[in-house]
Amino acid sequence: MKLLRHTKNYTLTGEKKVSVQIRDNEIYKINNKKASVEVEGINNDEVLIKIDNQTHIGEVVNLKQNEVSVMINGNTYDFTIDTELASKRKEKIAKNAGVKVSKVNAPLPGEIVAVLMSEGQEVHKGEPIMILEAMKMQNEITSPVNGKIKSIHAKADDTVMKDQVLFEIDPDK
Amino acid sequence: MKIKSILIANRGEIAIRIARTAKQMGIKTYMFLSHHEPNALHLDHADEVIDVSDNTYINVYTNIDKLIEVALENKIDAIHPGYGFLSENPFLPRECERNNIIFIGPSSKAINQMGNKGMARDMALKNDIPVLQGSKGVITKIEEAEETAKIIGYPIILKAVAGGGGKGMRVVRKKAELPLMFKLATNEAKALFDNDSMLIEKYVENPRHVEFQVMADKHGNIIHLYERECSIQRKHQKLLEEAPSAALSEELRQKIGADAVKICKATNYYSAGTVEFLLDDDLNHYFMEMNTRVQVEHPITEEITGVDIIELQIKIAEGEKLSLKQEDIKIKGWAMELRVNAEDVQSGFAPSTGLVEQMDIPTRKYLRCDSGYQAGKVVVSSFDSLVAKLIITGKTRNEAIKNCRTVLNNTTIKGVKTTLPFFKQVMQTPSFVKGKYTTSFIETDLTQSFYQEDNELVAAAVLAMEAYLQEQAKINSDELDDKPVSAWAMSKKIKG
C-alpha cells in the first residue's frame, strides 16, 4: 500500500469537535487553519507538543481503534477519530434516530439511599429521582428530560453496579 | 490513667496521622485490615493489624459491638474514632465507658447535645451567642413552615434536624417555592435519617464559613486555637481551607473565639471540637453548629499554632490538665489545605476510583502531605474520595499561595482523576488571590472548575491525532512485511 500522498480530513469528536487536515501523513491544518506542529517524546510516556510557538506537555493514556484518550495538565480528553465524511454520516444518523425512552444508569457503583419519586409521576428536567451514595457522597440522580417516569429499577438500600439502569423516563413530545 | 495502646477505628490518612503522634508518645497502635482494602497503606503504620477481612458483611468502622469486642479481646486501653464513621455517634463513648475503655473524644452527652442542631441552637441562644433567626423548635407540617417563613422573611433554608454535611437542606427563595421544597426536604430527610423534622432558618446569601478549633480538658479549662476559613465548598463539602481567615480583624477574631469557648463551657465540653460560624456581608457572625471530633482540616491549625491536636486529644482523654493557656497560643504564618480527592473535575466532580498508577508529591520545607495512598494502592468506592491533603504554609498569605502553585506544578497523580486541576484554577482566580471570597465561590467566581492552558484542547487533539496516525502507519508497515498477519491485526485493519 502506498503512503498517503494526498490530503485527508479528520474530525476528532470529544468535548468539542476539532477538525484536522492531514497532508503527506502530517498535520497540515487544524480547524481549517494552517499550523506548524511538532510532537516529540521527552521521557517515560510524556510528549512535548509544539503548535506554532506554543508548547504543551501531554501523554497518551489510551488508544483503542479510533478512540484515543490523552492527558494534559491532569485533564483528560477523550476523542473519537473519524474521517470528516464518516463523522458527518454518524451525526446525521444520530439526529434522525431520536430518543424514545430515556434510560438513566448509575454513574458509579454505590448504594441507593433513597427513592424520591414513583412510577407514573411527572418529572422535570433536573428533578432528583433517587439518591445514590458512593464514596460517602450523596449524588442526586436526576431526570435528564421533562417527562413521565416509566419505570424504576432500584429501591432504597439496593447496591447498584456502575451503568446499571436505575430508571426510565418517557420524555414529553 | 496513661494510655498505652489505642485502637484506631479508622483508615486512610487519618489512621496514619493518629498513629504518627501515638508513636511519638510511645503508645502502641492497632488498626483494621478490612476486605475493602486488603492492600491499604495505613496497615504499614500500625503496630498490630486486626484482620477482619473474613467478615465481608460488616463495615468494621461503623460497628460498635465489633470495636468493643476487639478492644476487650486485645486489652486495648483506648479507642480513637478519627473523623466520619462513628466519631460523632454518642453510643460509642457510652459503650466504651461501660466497658472501661477510654474514648478519645468528648462525652456521650456532649455529642448528643451538640450533634442535634435544634439543641445546639437553643444552647447558643441561652448563652447570648448570635444565631440566625429561625423556627422555635422543630417543624413537621407545611402550615407551620409557612407561618415561620412569614415571620422570618425569605430567603429561608430548610434543614433536617438529624442531617449534617449538607444532606437534607433546601433553600427557599420565595413563598411559591415552599410547598415543593418542603415536600422534597421532608421526603429526603425521612428516607435518609428516618426523621422528617425540619428546622427553618434565615438564609444568608453568599456567607463565609469560619470555624474555631477548641480544646478543652476534663477540668473545665478551655482554649481555642483560632479559626479556619472553609468557604471553598462544593455541595457543602469543603475542598480548600486556610488559616487564619483573611476576613477577620483581630478584634472580631477575639470576639468570635470567646463565643466558641463560651458554648463549650456551657456544655461542659472536653476534647477537641470545632465551632462553626457563618459570617454575613457585614461581618456579623452567627453560630451554626459544633463538630465534636477532630476534623479533616485540623492540620492547618497545627501548622499556624504549633500545637499537635491529636496529642492534646490523647492527653485530655488521659485526664491531664491543659498546660497551654489562651495567651500562649499565637498565630504564626499562613497555612492552606488542598484536598486532593479522586474526583473528575471535568465532569461535575464525579468520584473516580481505581488504581493509583503514579503519585509524585514534591518534598518542600513548606509542604506537609497527609495521605493514605501511594502508587500501587487502590481507591475503592466504599470509602471517601480523599487521596491526599496538601498542607502548604508561608510567612504570609501571598507566600502560601505562591508555594501552593509550586507544589501543584510539581505534583503528578495518575490512574485516578483528581481535584489537582481544580486547585490550579483556584490559585489564579482573582477573588481567591485577594482573599475576598464566599461559599458561592465555585458557582460565581470560577470561570471553569479546572485549569486549562490556552489551546489545550487543540493540543490534546493534535496528540491524539499523532498517536492515531502512528498506529495506522504501524499497521500499514506490518502489512508490507512478509510475516503472516494475525487475525487480530487484520480485523483492526478492516475496521480502522
How would you portray this structure in words?
- The complex is a heterodimer of chains A (173) and B (496).
- Chain A contains 1 helix and 17 strands.
- By secondary structure, chain A is mainly beta.
- Chain A folds into 2 domains: 7-96, no CATH class; 102-171, Beta Barrel (OB fold (Dihydrolipoamide Acetyltransferase, E2P)).
- In chain A, strands 4-3-2-1-9-8-7-6-5 form a 9-stranded antiparallel β-sheet. In chain A, strands 10-17-15-12 form a 4-stranded antiparallel β-sheet, with no helix packed on it. In chain A, strands 14-13-11-16 form a 4-stranded antiparallel β-sheet, with no helix packed on it.
- In chain A, β5 and β6 (47-51) form a beta hairpin.
- The longest helix of chain A is centred in the middle third of the chain and has 14 residues, at 84-97.
- Chain A starts with 6 loop residues before the first strand and ends with a strand.
- The relative contact order of chain A is 0.13.
- The mean pLDDT of chain A is 88.
- With 496 residues, chain B is α+β, with helices and mostly antiparallel strands.
- Chain B folds into 4 domains: 5-104, Rossmann fold; 133-202, ATP-grasp fold, A domain (Dna Ligase, domain 1, 2-Layer Sandwich), CATH 3.30.1490; 208-444, ATP-grasp fold, B domain (D-amino Acid Aminotransferase, Chain A, domain 1); 457-495, no CATH class.
- Chain B has helices spanning 12-24, 64-73, 91-98, 108-115, 117-126, 142-152, 178-193, 250-266, 298-305, 309-318, 397-409, 420-426, 430-434, 441-444, 456-480, 487-495; strands spanning 5-8, 28-33, 48-51, 78-80, 102-103, 156-160, 169-172, 198-202, 208-216, 222-234, 237-243, 271-279, 285-291, 334-341, 343-344, 350-351, 354-355, 358-360, 367-371, 378-379, 386-394, 412-414.
- In chain B, strands 13-12-9-10-11-14-21-19 form an 8-stranded antiparallel β-sheet. In chain B, strands 3-2-1-4-5 form a 5-stranded parallel β-sheet, sandwiched between helices.
- The radius of gyration of chain B is 25 Å and the shape is globular.
- The termini of chain B are far apart.
- The interface between A and B is large, with 56 and 56 residues.
